[in-house]
Amino acid sequence: MAVTCAAGLTCAMLPISANAQSTIPGVFSTGVDSLGNLLPGAQIDPHYTITSSPLGSSSAYATSPINPYWGANTVTSAWINQTGDATGPTDDEPAGTYVYTLTFNLVGFNPATANITGEWLSDDSSSIWLNGVQTAFSNTSNTAFAFFTLNSGFTAGVNTLQFYITQIAQGPINPEGLQANIFTATAVAVPEPAPVSLSLIGCLSWFLIRKLKKQV
């Protein structure tokens, strides 16, 4: 928005755009690199970590080959799990809860405007948590994507998006895993106050100079 001074002149441009949505940095689908490209099998996912499981906390790994009973990877997301394996004879991951955690920062954004949408699969059943609070979204399928929209519960600063997966005892091959496909992650950026103040000061100075010249 421009500030217009006397005689129709424009003093400065104010960098304010009401309700302009920007992409939230740090929010990624599973199994991709920093550019959104699918990771090779057994590579560490740089965005998601396993913060709790019967095997302890660890990195999460792009899983290849995926289990034949799982839904396919998409072009923008891939399965991850704690071993990077979903078909091998030793991949019998114990029963319990596996927590996949994604951390992102809303510094510079209005958290009340944050919105994340996507879909996910899991083995076995799972639920979504935001900042330590369970949401209404859950999925019991490893082949049919469930959709989610998160538009509340965000906080200023660091936020955590978590997928809690319940692993059931089976065997002899019993992998667990997650595939989360993020569609959008947006929030309204908080405008910087300094440029606005400088613009107003510039206009005030212009008015004062004009007034002084008229009095001379």
Structural features, described:
By secondary structure, this protein is mostly beta strands. Helix content is 11%, strand content 42%. The chain has a single domain, classed as Jelly Rolls (Sandwich). The chain contains one helix and 13 strands, in the order βββββββββββββα. The protein has a seven-stranded antiparallel beta sheet with strand order 6-5-4-7-12-9-10, with no helix packed on it. The longest helix has 23 residues, at 193-215.
Spell out the key features of this protein.
single chain, 216 residues, mainly beta, Jelly Rolls, 7-stranded antiparallel sheet, 1 helix, disordered N terminus
CATH domain class: Mainly Beta
CATH architecture: Sandwich
Give helix and strand order, one letter per element, not per position. Answer: EEEEEEEEEEEEEH
Quantity of strands, as a count:
13
CA distance, first residue to last residue: 34 Å
Short description:
11% of the residues lie in helices and 42% in strands.
Topology:
Layout: E1 2-4, E2 10-13, E3 21-23, E4 44-52, E5 58-62, E6 80-81, E7 96-105, E8 109-123, E9 126-130, E10 133-139, E11 146-150, E12 158-167, E13 177-189, H1 193-215
Antiparallel strand pairs: 1-2, 3-13, 4-5, 4-7, 5-6, 7-12, 8-11, 8-13, 9-10, 9-12
